[in-house]
């Protein structure tokens, strides 16, 4: 029981820290969200606003990580709910000291001596005190967990609205400076550096790793196979209309 109490106490400290962190993040993100919303609503945007908002988007916390932690915490809450039910039932039984002493005398088959009876009473009293302390701590944990859920709900709601606003508006905002003419002159050198031997292996590794998981890979492969199988029919159809193309009295948009 002492180990259970120590475990709940440690978990309670973690809850306090998590709640303080969630409330602090919510205050920060809510202020950022309101600032961005008011700025975008004004209709006046400088050229670097898109770049600034991209930085704000990257600063939004990982919502999936928060949701994962909540699922793990709910499992612990379920365990404490069951343990609290059992501990309260045991505390009620131990609270009736005379009944417990009578049960012990019946199990022993004879009345204990005064010293033994005092020792048994002391053990039962210590057990009851520890149970009551554990029950109080577990109930406090469950209450704190409810408050943390409320704080995280507010954080997740505000962060989702903020992220949605940024993603919606960034489509229409410039996020990089416009290219200068001199930059186009460096494209051949940059392309050559990209395809150089030093980067060829890295590029091949990246394609091998990322290409199989691309959702466009298999549709493109199937389309290529279909075009290959239909190649003769396509060529024949093209040759069939080739004579009519370019002639004034037979050409038309339908042959395009």
Q: Which series of helices and strands comes N to C?
A: HHHHHHHHHH
The shape is: elongated
Strand content: under 5%
| Rg for CA atoms | 36 Å
* Mean pLDDT over all positions: 76
- How does the major sheet shape up? none
Helix content: over 70%
Low-confidence stretches: none
Distance between the termini: 84 Å
Q: Helical element count?
A: 10
The helix/strand class is mainly alpha
> How many strands in all?
0
Q: Any chance you could write out the topology, listing elements then pairs?
A:
Layout: H1 2-42, H2 49-59, H3 63-95, H4 97-108, H5 114-170, H6 181-185, H7 187-194, H8 197-210, H9 217-229, H10 231-242
Helix pairs in contact: 1-5, 2-5, 3-5
Concise structural overview:
This protein is mainly α.
Primary descriptors:
single chain; 256 residues; mainly alpha; 10 helices; 80% helix; elongated
Structural summary, described in words:
With 256 residues, this protein is an all-alpha fold. 80% of the residues lie in helices and 0% in strands. The protein contains ten helices and no strands. Helix 3 (63-95) packs antiparallel against helix 5 (114-170). The longest helix is centred in the middle third of the chain and has 57 residues, at 114-170.
